[in-house]
Amino acid sequence: MNKKTVRDIDPSGKRALVRVDFNVPLAEGKVTDDTRIRSALPTIQHLLDHGGAVILMSHLGRPKGKVVPELRMDPVEARLAELLDRPVRKLDDCVGTEVEAACRELAPGQVVLLENTRFHPEERANDPAFAAQLAALGDLYVNDAFGSAHRAHASTEGVAHAMREKGGEAVAGFLMERELEFLSRAVENPERPFIAVLGGAKISDKIGVIERLLERCDRLLIGGGMANTFFQAMGFEMGDSLVEEEAVETARQLLKEGQSRLVLPVDVVIADAFPEGEPVESRVVAPDQVPPGWRVLDVGPKTITTFESALGGARTVLWNGPLGVFEAPQFAKGTFALAKALARLDATTIVGGGDSAAAVRQSGLADRFTHISTGGGASLEFLEGKSLPGVAALSDKDGDE
Ligand code: ADP
Ligand code: MG
């Protein structure tokens, strides 16, 4: 990576303005999953240990540019203070004279948490004046919010420019560095065999990813709703399955290009209704045997075996997208079997995508994976080869720009 990181700067006596991804799930005023907070700790701790003061900022939920009391950062403050084992002062806004005063007074070792940046419409609009107000709070800027790096917002992109304009550094945090390192190693220089597994709901979200991976991997296994569109392109009747008509042509093209490397399910689990809480009637059939009124909701047992042997000997595996409607236990078998198979491998295993990461955590095998990306959309855009605005705006490693 040719961007500066927190390793390249001396935070001593400085106030570090740190963009983190504290967009965590909440229920009844409490953080229900603190993974994202934990993921930011190494960067925060490093800055504090090296004599810096830390000003944290993040968005939380979708307040649409106004103050929404339920989306205040207070629950995050509570959990963060516990995890850091030191007091965190939460402010009621992220810009303005009071915030400026509080940040000016900061002493080394102190931690401030700004209010939800999305309470201001200027955040998503990437308003330069707002970005400059944010930049004014600190002496240097650290972006550790990989999950938001694909958005050119004031706190991710504009602020980095504003900080550099006033002579401060804009660098990547450890989490950002780690995410970029693992994801780029997978697509640029993977240890082979390199196998990609793709699933999830829709092809159209992921065409760029499929194309790029197909060029680079040794085998591409496809499951989930995505496989249905491929089957449709092969001329199979898919009943009431999720199929994207407008992506059928693309699927046909991909089948042609990737023929020898594409592995599709050989059997599927179908049901005559979508599972809404109650279990539904289900069967296992070949993919070309889906009766009218039935829909594919998971890969079948033979496919699990096929995928397991296709993965044998892999040295790098990238997985994005569940193999079935794993939210319903009845149709989670394929997804969890894949998680188990990957956990057993002696390989670099990388998971991208919000739902896939959730599935891996649910499987209880998360610690057996090399890297689980904290960014859903960001990891997809990165895997497509797009430049992430929040990364592009940081200071380059070699020298002056
Ligand atoms: P990720 O967030 O990991 O990138 P996606 O958002 O693309 O994954 O897809 C996840 C969703 O795909 C899940 O909600 C899951 O229920 C759905 N899904 C998987 N298989 C099917 C299927 N056969 N039919 C309908 N939906 C499916
Ligand atoms: Mg998703």
The overall pLDDT, averaged over residues, is 95
Small molecules bound in the structure, each named once? adenosine-5'-diphosphate, magnesium ion
CATH topological fold name of the largest domain: Rossmann fold
- Percent range for helical residues? 25-40%
- Please identify the structural class as seen in this structure: alpha/beta
Percent strand equals 15-25%
**CATH superfamily heading of the largest domain:** Phosphoglycerate kinase, N-terminal domain
Can I get a quick summary?
By secondary structure, the chain is an alpha/beta fold.
Secondary-structure map:
Elements: E1 15-19, E2 26-27, E3 30-31, H1 35-49, E4 53-57, H2 74-84, E5 89-90, H3 97-104, E6 111-113, H4 121-124, H5 128-135, E7 140-143, H6 154-165, E8 170-172, H7 174-188, E9 194-198, H8 207-216, E10 219-222, H9 224-233, H10 248-258, E11 262-263, E12 268-271, E13 282-285, E14 295-299, H11 301-311, E15 316-320, H12 333-344, E16 348-352, H13 354-363, E17 371-372, H14 376-383, H15 389-392
Parallel strand pairs: 1-4, 1-7, 4-6, 5-6, 7-8, 9-10, 9-15, 10-11, 15-16, 16-17
Antiparallel strand pairs: 2-3, 12-13, 12-14
Helix pairs in contact: 1-2, 5-6, 8-10, 9-10, 11-12
The structure holds adenosine-5'-diphosphate and magnesium ion.
